[in-house]
UniProtKB/TrEMBL annotation:
The keyword Manganese applies. Its EC number is 6.3.2.4. Binds 2 magnesium or manganese ions per subunit. Belongs to the D-alanine--D-alanine ligase family. This is D-alanine--D-alanine ligase. PROSITE patterns: ATP_GRASP, DALA_DALA_LIGASE_1, DALA_DALA_LIGASE_2. It catalyses: 2 D-alanine + ATP = D-alanyl-D-alanine + ADP + phosphate + H(+). Pathway: Cell wall biogenesis; peptidoglycan biosynthesis. GO terms for cellular component: cytoplasm. Mg(2+) 1 binds at D277, E291. The gene is ddl. It comes from Pedobacter steynii.
Length: 328
């Protein structure tokens, strides 16, 4: 029997552009023999289903249903493809928990906590072989001292919105005199910031997912960019960054990375597919945790589709297993 799925896209942040592209990839690769899929767009104006042949239909938020030409459509579950708020920060998960509808992502608590980079780092600290950069958390509505931050941390720094995504509002600071400007820029995106010491090394990202009841780390991707760091442009402009999947790292490094990534997934009580960004210092040395994305991009050029292919899986099968694991 086919399952009826809502594929939820859009959102209320600048990342909605990426969400729409992610949803297009997912829709294309959800098995039509197994799923009836209704793509629903969430914006500040409302939640709508937009059928090709008629005007958009608003979702009844009492039970997340649709009324199409007098026929009520209810869903077996929701595939959430919204990056940023309200899809990645726990708000939608809390709503779906209240109405008893399963979804493909981490639960409300994990989603909310992992959107905050500072809190996440506190939780993963202590995992064997995992390191975190020294950092300071700054809040807009409480006083902070730029001079004190300079005393506590060594240059260069990364200044980033604590709850942001896609590297929006992020800066690398190489001169102490530029710190205030970077703080002001990040405060335009969020009222909490994380200022952390720059860790020199190679940048990587790895997808982690529970499939067939087992936590699996996908093949790792190495990210190289001519830019100062992997910013929004490097992430979403073809040719700005070089991505190599699987990454050219030693076999023992691969197994150590997989073990750490799986421990992070467990410790943060994740479900669905997540992506962990990290740095390896010098000769594939220490593993430094950067951040976790609980709704990683699924666009045609995104890391997860690349890693699924490198693991020898078809996206179609991957999404089928993901839905089975999270929605049933």
């Amino acid at each position: 029997m086919k399952k009826t799925l809502a594929l939820l896209t859009g959102g209320t942040t600048g990342e909605w552009v990426v969400s729409v592209k992610s949803a297009a990839t997912i829709a294309q690769n959800l098995d039509a023999d197994k799923f009836d899929v209704y793509k629903i767009m969430l914006t500040q104006q409302g939640w709508f289903y937009e059928p090709a042949d008629s005007v958009k239909i608003e979702v009844d938020r009492n039970d997340f249903s649709l009324n199409i030409k007098g026929r009520k459509i209810t869903f077996d579950g929701v595939f959430i493809a919204i990056h940023g708020s309200p899809g990645e920060d726990g708000k939608l998960q809390g709503y779906f928990d209240m109405i008893g509808l399963p979804y493909t992502t981490c639960n409300a608590l994990t989603s909310a906590v992992t959107m905050n980079k500072g809190y996440t780092k506190s939780i993963v600290t202590g995992i064997e072989n995992l390191h975190v950069a020294r950092s300071v958390q700054v809040f807009k509505n409480t006083g902070y001292s730029v001079e004190q931050i300079k005393k506590e941390l060594k240059l260069p720094y990364f200044v980033k919105p604590n709850n942001g995504g896609s590297s929006i509002g992020m800066s690398k600071v190489t001169h102490g005199a530029d710190l205030q400007k970077a703080i002001d820029k990040a405060f335009k995106e969020d009222d909490q910031l994380l200022i952390e010491e720059f860790i020199s090394g190679r940048e990587f990202t790895v997808g982690v997912v529970r499939l067939d009841g087992k936590i699996v780390a996908l093949p790792v991707t190495e990210v190289e960019t001519a830019k100062e760091f992997f910013d929004f442009e490097a992430k979403y402009t073809p040719g700005v960054a070089t991505e190599t999947t699987p990454a050219p790292i030693r076999t023992e490094t691969k197994s150590r990375v997989a073990q750490i990534a799986e421990m992070v997934y467990l410790k943060l009580n994740c479900s669905g597919v997540v992506r962990i960004d990290f740095i390896l210092t010098e000769d594939e040395g220490d593993f430094y945790f950067i951040e976790i994305n609980t709704i990683p991009g699924q666009t045609a050029t995104s890391f997860i589709p690349q890693q699924v292919a490198a693991a020898g899986m078809k996206l179609n099968d991957f999404y089928t297993k993901l839905v089975k694991e999270t929605i049933g």
